[in-house]
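Quick one, tokens below:
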């Protein structure tokens, strides 16, 4: 099987995470841009899984993706007190180009007066892969925590600065990269994907 993975993202933070987790698996990982694939993909699915599959199918159909494994993820923050918002709309919450500092401030504002035990939240992630033979694999995972009262830490991206992870007593943006990859929704889903790809290679 191909050792080339095209990951359907332009998010450098995400690519770095993926490279660290798949480092020992011998894959060469490229972004769509690095593979010369420019597509405007309409992620109109209602679940993370649907959106991840929409992305991999669109990229896999591009001539530059021939013979490669195409992988994509869709993830989001679900805040229980806000009816699991922003959920699948996490990237587009308050507008696609709105800085996360504004999105984070808005979520904290909307939770004003909500006590600790009701600030529960999770990051959820689905990762989809389309293999050169056309078969598809999807893995999913979550990380449970709660929403903090202010932004803390500068190691993460997106909603990491407001997501408090009780086992470490820290916000996810305060964790080291290694700690975060160990417990994060994307880290866990990626390791599951690595296992699945390993099984395919053995056949």
């Amino acid at each position: 099987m191909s050792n080339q993975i095209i990951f359907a993202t332009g998010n450098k933070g995400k690519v770095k995470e993926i490279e660290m987790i798949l480092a020992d698996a011998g894959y060469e990982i490229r972004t769509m841009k690095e593979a010369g694939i420019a597509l405007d993909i309409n992620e109109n699915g209602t679940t993370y899984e649907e959106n991840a599959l929409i992305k991999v199918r669109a990229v896999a159909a591009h001539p530059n993706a021939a013979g490669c494994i195409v992988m994509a993820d869709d993830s989001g923050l679900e805040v229980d007190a806000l009816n699991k918002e922003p959920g699948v709309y996490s990237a587009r919450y308050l507008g696609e180009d709105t800085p996360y500092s504004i999105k984070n401030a808005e979520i904290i504002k909307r939770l004003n007066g909500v006590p600790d035990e009701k600030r529960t939240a999770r990051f959820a992630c689905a990762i989809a892969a389309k293999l050169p033979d056309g078969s598809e694999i999807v893995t999913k995972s979550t990380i449970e925590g709660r929403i903090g009262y202010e932004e803390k830490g500068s190691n993460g991206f997106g909603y990491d600065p407001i997501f408090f992870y009780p086992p470490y007593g820290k916000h996810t943006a305060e964790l080291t990269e290694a700690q975060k990859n160990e417990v994060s929704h994307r880290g866990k889903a990626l390791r599951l994907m690595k296992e699945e790809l390993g099984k395919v290679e053995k056949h």
